[in-house]
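Posting here for the record, re: phosphoenolpyruvate.
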Amino acid sequence: MLDRLRSIVQAVNSAKDLRSALDIIVSRVSEAMDTEVCSVYLLDSDINGHVLMASQGLKQEAVGHVSLGLGEGLVGLVAQQAEPVNLVDADQHPSFHFLPETGEEPFKSFLGVPIIHHRSVLGVLVVQNRERRRFDAGEEAFLITLSAQLAGVIAHAEATGAIQGTSPSGHKTADTTFSGVSGSSGVAIGTAVVIFPPADLRHVPMRAVTDIDHELELFNNSLQAVRNDMSALYENTAGHMPEGERELFNVYLHMLDDDALGREVVEQIRNGVWAQGALAHVANEHVRSFELMSDKYLRERAVDIKDLCSRVLAYLQEREPVKTEYPEDTILVSEELTPSMLAEVPKENLRGLISVKGSGSSHVAILARGMGLPTVMGVVDLPINQLDGKEMIVDGYNGQVISNPTDQLRQRFQDTIREEDVLTQGLADIKDLPCETADHHRVHLWVNTGLISDVIRSLDQGAEGIGLFRTEVPFLLSERFPSEQEQASIYREQLQAFSPMPVTMRTLDVGGDKDLPYFPIEEANPFLGWRGIRVTLDHPEIFSAQIRAMLKASIGLNNLQIMLPMISSVSEVVASTQLIKKAYRELLQEGHDVKYPRVGVMIELPAAVYQARSLARMVDFVSVGSNDLTQYILAVDRNNPRVANLYNSFHPSVLQALRHVVSEAHQEGKQVSICGEMAGDPGAAVLLMAMGFDVLSMNSSTLLKVKSVIRSITMDAAQDLLEQVMLLEDAQTIRSAVDMALYNAGVDRLLRSSRIH
Ligand code: PEP
Ligand code: MG
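Prediction output follows.
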């Protein structure tokens, strides 16, 4: 059973488009379940109905033409109830709706299961038989399992069609939206430039060319180069390799000699496709058909074709390294964006970023925030091969990407960009004014940094200190652990730029999803594993070098604060402070004029919330990392697009935890700050101020918006609002209450652009 399931899913996975995916489903399912009919109906929201998209057993003329309205027929019933319907006598059921065009009359028994992806019903998978019998529990379970596994593949295939502007039944569609997670806020509209990894046939985009002769020449030369390699390999391995294995090179040579594959590529090039795209297209088609073969020997030939064509592709790419053109409104798109990809693009041409993999705390997202580039990460259903040259909208506020925008939608986003610009210009006036409420309550607005460019932008925005310098950023950008001296000079830049204002340096916070390329941590459950202080306490040599570098960098400036991430117990603070003291004593002994820094802990885990009082007593300040605190209180992976809708810092449990931490820290007379994304959300910032946070530390791009909102209200009003929302029971209601209050205070303009959820 499992084998059958696996082989169907694998076959469907390798289909080239929606239509062939559905054809494979219906033929393989009816074969596996031994049914006379198997059909797939998909929802087409443009026509408000379920269209018969593929069928084995029903009349083929009906496929693509017959549809049922929403809720109509048994298919409508399955979709509406989002549950299976299993009937002995389908035509006796009150919902039965006869479709004469399909020729389904003789088929009496019916089993339909919904195809559900991300809570929405994409369509219905149906099997039917002439015989009047109920499908048994095993058959029902098989179809349900299969449907659940196929939903993602079908959604992806549908998305590929949608990118080309067509709905499942071939109607024109627009405003196709793909969801991911926000990497960096802001909106960008521009032209997609897809960057693909070298020599990877799966990710070569299709591009049109005009110089066809040039492409043909490139292709022929590359093909010849691979032929030469194969002959050389064959010759050179004589006597070293068993004859049977050497034969493989001969097989390859024959595949190249046989001009079938080459001819198809040449045909594609003659049709105006560039050589790399033509080769990838033909190779992928052949690989797919070999992979579907039932004969094991033939199936394995798929690997040979992949290998051979990858070699040709590598030559093509070497001969003509892709000189990507970056239009002046470039939206950079890749399966997995890397900082070096960013570095290739002229800065003035880069508008936004989209990455299929990765998360809001990926390396690239951190850089994007520093550069103020709207970014969406983790857009898992995005068919990137189809995107090159297409107009895209990046909605970094909501973590969404939109293609084929209608004029109205484009206009709406353009208005947002314009409003943002006007707003930003208007806010410059308050840069040097204090952050205080209308009734003179003073709050300190600090910034989060990682790169030196963040520091420069932050000073421009009137920041009063650095509340979080993510020291892992320079570590991530390095190819090995930076030496003590290298670290000291990086830290000195930050300390000097802000001097005499305080700079809070967090000790190395790797693990979770922040992997150093030279220090990989492979774990089944990385967010609950070796992360933050746990790593550095296990490697005191790394921790001590970092502390020494920080202390040395602060000589003469004395504005250093050290902060410890991922603290879950008092003993971790004891161990860390011992190491800090040891480094301090060593430096004194070495004759350096260092001053002992203020030391603080991050409250990021529920365990630390409940022990906030004890922890606060041991240090000079505490700072809440609300990004992690939200993920750990709600048990929602902060980077997983599937559960992104559950990740919400306005959840009453999160708010109660925050309030508790402030009260506990203040009872110990210690300063309390917050440095998660929440602090930069103007609505949340009002609540945090009312709770009593002394410092709000945020991304510099949101600082003036937060200041403007705080300057527009009174502490009294903020506290009333806080009391009111603390009685509410769910995050959405709380968000609405905050929005409403700010609307009434006349500052809602600032909200839309910077809200976290
Ligand atoms: C946090 O968890 O809120 C935080 C500020 O740290 P990071 O986002 O780097 O994990
Ligand atoms: Mg954190």
